[in-house]
Specification:
This protein is α+β, with helices and mostly antiparallel strands and about 120 residues long. It has one domain. It is globular and about 45 Å long. The relative contact order is 0.21.
Length: about 120
């Protein structure tokens, strides 16, 4: 697994990251484990799109993490996703994003599989 990019989509009220993950595999169980690990890793990321967001959110854990998961970089460039995920901090009450529909839930993490995987 490799995290290709973390994009800061934070607002002054919610720390949010959108992340591209490359798996190198299309094995569903392996991807599931990678998604869980990547989400935990990204929660603690310190990526900021500008100084205002850095000043506001430095040292804070993300409250929302979205992952876009592809097998290869080429697949990511072509938007051929294996799955998309969403994690929302259960303590985030105000300004929550709309919860995405998914096929699996692992605690507060939702996985939406795209297409058929082995």
């Amino acid at each position: 697994m490799r995290i290709l990019e973390i994009a800061d989509l934070s607002t002054p009220r919610v720390k949010r990251y959108s992340t591209l993950v490359i798996t190198g595999t299309d094995d569903k169980e392996a991807i599931r484990q990678m998604v869980l690990a990547a989400t935990e890793s990204v929660k603690g990321a310190e990526e900021y799109r500008n100084e205002a967001m850095k000043e506001r959110w430095a040292g804070e854990t993300a409250q929302v993490v979205w992952l876009y998961v592809a097998k290869t970089e080429e697949d990511a460039r072509m938007d051929r996703w294996l799955c998309r995920t969403q994690w929302i901090d259960p303590n985030l009450n105000e300004h929550r994003p709309i919860e995405m529909e998914g096929h699996e839930r692992h605690g507060d993490l939702i996985i939406r599989w795209i297409g058929e995987l082995p």
